[in-house]
Amino acid sequence: MLPAARRGGELTDELLQSGLWTDDMLERAGIEISDVPLVSVGGGIGSFVTADYLRIAGVAPDQIAVLSNIDFAWQTYEYLTGVSQIPRGERIRSDSASRPDNIWGFPSYGLAEAVHTRSLRPLWQLLVEPVGDDYYTPRAGQVFASLERESSRIGYPQMVIKGQVRMVRRRHGGGYFTILTQMPGAAQPRRMAYRSQYVHLAVGYPGLKFLPELQEFRTGYSDFHHVVSAYEDHEHVYQRARSRRTVILVRGGGIVASRVLQRLMDDRKRYGLETEIVHLFRTYVSGSHGPHAWSRRKGGDGFAYQGFNYPKSVWGGQLKVRMRRLEGEDRAAAYKQMGGTNTPYRRSWQEQMRTGRTDGWYRTMSGTVEQMMLDDGMVVSRVATRTGTIDVAADFVIDCTGLEADIAEHRVLADLLEHSGAARNPLGRLDVERSFEVRGAASGDGVLYASGSATLGGYFPGVDTFLGLQIAAQEITDDLARRGFCRRIGPVRSTTQWLRWVLGRQP
Amino acid sequence: MVPTLAGRIQTRLALLAVIGGVVTLIIVPVLPVPASVSLGDTYRNALLILAAVMVLGVGWEFVYHFLMQWRWEKDWPTLFGLVTLVPEGLLVWLVMRAGIIPGMTGTVPAPAFCLQFLAVWIVVWLVANGPMRVPFIRWRFRGGRLA
User: Within 10 A of A423 (CB to CB), how many other CB atoms are there?
Assistant: First the structure.
């Protein structure tokens, strides 16, 4: 029989049950140890922008290991935008200066597009937004292309180690061990332990959660065809609508619902279809809403309107300052006040919906679904409205509600909560300091950081956005500079590094 | 950059002093003033006008901050930063004509005033909407605060 280390090591009971691992424990388990100063778990945009910041702050690529199960940083993002109806040519919902490939946000996407396309149109839009025109937003393809360029500039692919991260545990004597299973699914998976002083977690969304009645339908009928999630591939719905008259029930009032409506309405016009759309809102917004004149969001026709995921001042204005000072229930209440499903007001979408309402093929209703049944190939949703219960029959239901699963659904986060001293914040997610250090998870001179969706509910609200990930990366880099791991990016370093970015030279 | 009140004031003072100062130094020799006015007096007047924009501007920032409270996003669109040159320019002009700016020599012709004011305003506005982020990477996340 092969020695454990050659087989790839086993997670022994001793390891599984102990919250503090010694080097000897791993040796006994036959798990090979590899040393690297900083490990970033995830490998999506969150890991990428953090690695980008650190590289610009003078950290060499061999000082960072990005442990990831995806091939390139924007792979999951590209998949999710694709299935939720934002192909490369469509514009995402992100500000011109929120560039994950450029920590300065200059030149902005709008300026770059104007130069690239030799058109003044993007600049005009930037000048008059949001009063005289919709917000300028970049095309998905432009975002991916610029990420690719930056990835190659900073040597990101060399930092990535493919595999499935199983857990992060504190190390006796300081720092952490991160267990990575390489080649998951192989007959003999090889486990590696990465011993590092710093760990950064950016594992993304823990998973999708479906509304109970949708889940019951899908499992009860074993039917994943008629009731689909907008976050999964559901191209068959659009294909079917092209072959015959189709009734579609769209659920949700957020950005993804807007995208799905746009696709359905674009197809309807382009191919001369007879698609009928019933749009169900749980909370129907009929106009401006909010507690007082200084806190009122626009809305209408069911939707709450907002340019981006959060009010703009969350990323740098007075709302950011205010949230940074709030604790506990006060913070949770502030999140609730600014939260709620919303979507941008876009003139082209308004025009499409207006046409649909006038011509009678786009109808909205407000209520909650009590039950869903399959009847003669149609999905019947029993909707409780203010005026009574109504049965809505549709060929397909597209769920755009986008509920996120609890963080404990993610194996690494669950392990962290159970064994490494991490706790939950007022919104139930991972509790982090203003520097994005995970509270309670320090290990000697080692620090565990987290950014992204898992940390929503902290002192900074916009965590699950491009700019939010960069703000977190900046806080983490500044904290690491204070600890002596990298250099602080001051005005001189920032300017010289920006010039290197412009010239496409390595940091 | 989405400003806070402190950030507005700091950004205004810093940009007008540095960028506005440089623009003023460059533009003064070409300002359309009568030949009888010395270059020294033109510089003196131009710098006093710039100082007046800074001092009065602190007051304007309180007004803008107050108006911003009616916006859900608590933001200040790029266009607002440009068109506010109209009321601000008018106020500085009126204050100057009323003789309230101390130390001015003679009178400044309207074309010279407009040229200097517009040049300073537009360059400062352009810098605030992009290049400022290059040396100061934390500036936009701190509501425009530099200190």
Answer: 12
- Picking from B11, B74, B122 by the largest number of A CB atoms within 10 A of its own CB, the best residue to mutate is B74
pTM of the model: 0.95
Is A355 within 8 Å of chain B by CB?
no
Q: What is the pLDDT of residues A465-492, one digit of tens each?
A: 999 999 999 999 999 999 999 999 999 9
The SS3 of residue A21 is strand
A264-284 pLDDT, tens digit per residue, is 999 999 999 999 999 999 999
In A428-447, which positions are buried (b, 16+ CB within 10 angstroms) versus exposed (e)?
ebbbbeebbbbbebebeebb
Nearest to A33 by CA among A261, A236, A191, A268: A191
Q: Do A312 and B140 touch (CB under 8 A)?
A: no
Q: What are phi and psi of A258, to 5 degrees?
A: -60, -40
Alpha-carbon torsion angle B31, B37, B42, B43, nearest 10: 120
List chain B residues with CB under 8 Å of A317: 2-4, 7, 74-75, 143
Name which of B7, B134, B141 is nearest A106 (Cβ-Cβ). Answer: B134
pLDDT > 70? residue A317: yes
Six-digit token string for A108: 């902005």
Spatial distance between the Cα atoms of A448 and A458, rounded to a whole number of angstroms = 15
Rounded CA gap, A314 and A468, in Å? 9
Question: Which of the 8 DSSP states describes residue B30?
Answer: G
Starting at the edge strand found earlier in the chain, the sheet holding A38-42 runs A160-162, A64-68, A38-42, A198-201, A447-450
